[in-house]
Design a protein that fits this description.
Layout (H helix, E strand, L loop, with lengths): L3 E6 L2 H9 L4 E4 L12 H10 L4 E4 L11 H16 L4 E4 L10 H11 L3 E4 L9 H11 L3 E4 L10 H11 L4 E4 L8 H8 L3 E4 L7 H15 L1
Parallel strand pairs: 1-2, 1-8, 2-3, 3-4, 4-5, 5-6, 6-7
């Protein structure tokens, strides 16, 4: 079965390259070197205008931890409203309490604001103290997918947890493995976890040739 390939892109230019070389969906961000933050309004508009494939926008007002105060929350809610008004396909976000549990109160507000866009809980999930309990909470909230490396530094190292999460989800939410996913390990991750979608930056911070070659290679393997 074909596996959907989502490519993380830190600019509209890289997003256009990713689409050209076979990406099925784009996660658009900026400042990928610090884990990604929300792209500019201009980039978001251009993404909707120029890309034909679905675009999910990272909503993260700053780098650092995922514990947000009220000002942070309002900034992210405003960014989500902007995405919705520009008919973006989906948004990617996550917020935690200082004890490593999901901040359910803030998440409820964010999810309600984001509807009817597609909703992904990002790699803040890998800092949750109990990922299996967090999975059930995110299903209850109405989140569509979880971007995770199985609580390990890379998705390859987290295969066992990714498989457990996928099996527990049982079609109620999608598990989206991400974290150093490349052509040399993508099939191992997909085959051993059982997932139907995969996330990769495809070496975008190295150089354009590697980026293009990685997308082509992964697309061929996953088709």
């Amino acid at each position: 079965m074909k596996t959907l390939l989502e490519i993380c892109c830190p600019s509209i230019d890289t997003a256009l390259i990713a689409e050209k070389f076979g990406a099925d969906r784009i996660e658009l961000c900026t400042k990928l070197e610090v884990g990604g933050t929300t792209p500019s309004a201009k980039e978001i508009r251009l993404a909707k205008e120029k890309l034909k494939i679905p675009v999910h926008v990272l909503i993260r007002c700053r780098d650092g931890n995922f514990v947000y105060d009220e000002d942070d929350l309002q900034e992210m809610l405003d960014e989500i409203e902007f995405c919705k008004s520009n008919k973006i396909d989906g948004v990617v976000f996550g917020t935690l309490l200082s004890n490593g549990e999901i901040d359910l109160q803030k998440m409820k507000m964010i999810v309600e604001t984001a509807k009817p866009m597609n909703i992904t809980f990002h790699k803040a999930f890998d800092e949750c103290t109990n990922p299996f309990e967090a999975l059930e909470q995110l299903i209850e909230l109405g989140v569509h997918r979880i971007l995770t490396s199985g609580q390990q530094p890379t998705a390859l190292q987290g295969i066992d947890v990714l498989k457990q999460l996928h099996e527990q989800a049982n079609g109620r939410i999608l598990i989206l493995p991400g974290g150093s996913v490349r052509s040399e390990n993508v099939l191992q991750i997909v085959d051993n976890s059982g997932v139907s979608e995969i996330h990769s930056a495809a070496g975008v911070l190295q150089n354009e040739n590697i980026f293009e070659q990685e997308i082509l290679a992964m697309k061929k393997l996953l088709s």
